[in-house]
Write a structure and sequence with these properties.
With 394 residues, the chain is α/β, with parallel strands linked by helices. It contains 14 helices and nine strands. The structure holds zinc ion (ZN). The site of zinc ion (ZN) has 5 residues, from helix 6 and helix 10.
Length: 394
């Protein structure tokens, strides 16, 4: 896929799918118009300390100040947030008499902002709304509006219907899901991602890639998600290495931001064993979500290959493989191409290199099996299978 220059004010486009997406270099300047459209009298700006230190929060606040918009602030979201982060955010929302929420950052602030938005009108605990137990039926349509401003290109939380947090009672990373949690607007400005460090660009970029890939291979029917997913796979194949090598390359950053959105839109279809394992690895072994996905991905694909060879062949083509070999061959080419990409962007090859302890693998497999993500894995998997994949990735 050819990289198209996405810079310049005249290339900003607005799309509804169904979040209003304002995409393009300089799109941050369109934030005040969205605040006004959504009648956010005094939005609470949600961020974390990384966003404060990088100066990105100051850039957002300057834009608000420039338009005379008063706001509250909650900039203490923890990495891999828990329920407590959402409770603290709701307290800040009430103490500062806010109406509306603006989330700035990667997945942690964006997800936490969704849960803050939820808890301003819904009673705790969050476990009541756990997607795994059908909690979405308790989520009503009376939430204050949310604007998401992503500063990474990974989770795609800006266009997704779920917020993830570790719950107090279970200690498990839990998905709270409802269409009502969808941000009302997303300001997607690739200029906000150019300062992202190399490792984070790689880890979040592979998260976006894994969303596209697992959604594309997921054992479910959803043609629209498939179209978005295979498109996102091609964009990552063309842009991720450039974004990792040359962080200021705006066209590559822009392509990654689109792929992240496509990934999150596509995984409405479902995910797979890779995300089941990643969801277990992060709380147990403290491995970054994107990195966890990246390291186990080749082993999951080897496990799945026999169940989805035709689709893997399409993945190889999307990644630039034009050879007219047999499906089986193309499927293995896809896995080899993905392995090569992971190595070139500096992902450690084994879980042991990321600080995971071998003794934790059975617990990780057990938690991964409890995770709903693997239910749409193209090849059905047992706890034993997940343990086998984790061992192969170890
Ligand atoms: Zn993910």
């Amino acid at each position: 896929m050819r990289l198209v220059d996405l810079s310049g004010d005249d290339r900003i486009v607005e799309m509804s799918y169904p979040t209003r997406v304002v995409f393009g270099a300089g799109a941050l300047q369109r934030l005040p118009a969205q605040v006004e459209r959504l009648q956010m009298r005094k939005p609470l700006v949600v961020a974390d300390q990384g966003i404060v230190k990088s100066g990105l929060l100051a850039r957002v606040l300057d834009v608000l100040k420039g338009s005379g918009i008063t706001h509250g602030i909650f900039d203490r979201v923890n990495p891999d947030p828990t329920e407590e982060d959402a409770f603290d955010g709701v307290a800040a929302y009430r103490n500062q008499s806010c109406v509306g929420v603006i989330a700035v950052g990667g997945g942690s602030p964006l997800d936490t902002a969704k849960l803050i938005q939820l808890l301003t009108t819904h009673d705790p605990p969050l476990s009541r709304y756990d997607d795994a137990t059908g909690g979405d039926r308790f989520v009503r349509d009376d939430l204050p509006p949310l604007i998401a401003i992503p500063t990474t290109a990974g989770t795609g939380s800006e266009v997704s219907r779920s917020g993830v947090a570790t719950l107090k009672d279970t200690g498990r990373k839990t998905v709270i899901f409802s269409p009502h949690l969808l941000p009302k607007a997303a300001i997607c400005d690739p200029e906000l991602t150019v300062g992202m460090p190399r490792w984070l660009t790689a880890a979040t970029g592979i998260d976006a890639f894994t969303h596209c890939l697992e959604a594309y291979l997921a054992n479910a029917l959803h043609p629209l998600a498939d179209a978005l997913a295979i498109d996102g796979i091609g964009r990552v194949g063309a842009a991720l290495e450039i974004a990792v090598e040359k962080g200021t390359h705006l066209p590559a950053r822009g392509q990654m931001m689109i792929a992240a959105m496509e990934g999150a839109m596509a995984f409405q279809k479902g995910l797979g064993a890779c995300h089941a394992l990643a969801h277990a690895l992060t709380p147990i072994s403290r491995v970054h979500h994107g990195l966890a996905n990246a390291i186990v991905l080749p082993a999951v694909l080897e496990f799945n290959r026999s169940a989805c060879a035709a689709r893997l062949a399409q993945v190889a083509v999307a990644l630039g493989d034009n050879s007219l070999t047999r499906e089986e061959m193309l499927a293995s080419n896809a896995i080899e191409r993905i392995r090569g990409l992971l190595t070139r962007i500096g992902i450690p090859q084994r879980l042991r290199d990321a600080g995971v302890r071998e003794a934790d693998l059975p617990l990780i497999a057990k938690k991964a099996f409890q995770d709903a993500s693997h239910q749409t894995n193209p090849r059905p998997c047992t706890e034993e299978d997940l343990l086998g994949i984790a061992k192969a990735a170890f």
